[in-house]
Amino acid sequence: MKILHIFKREPSKTELEIVDFHSKANKVNLIKLYEDSVNYDNLVKEVFEHDKVFCW
Description:
The protein is α/β, with parallel strands linked by helices. Helices cover 38% and strands 29% of the residues.
């Protein structure tokens, strides 16, 4: 399963633990909106390419 985590701010320790848990049995990708300039076309593409999306 492909899981996407989108962070609008730096993740907390608990959020990182959840990402780590998900990555043990799934393909996990992160998008850090707080660090990068946002390519919204790519963001929408990524959302539709993943099975689950978590927004933090």
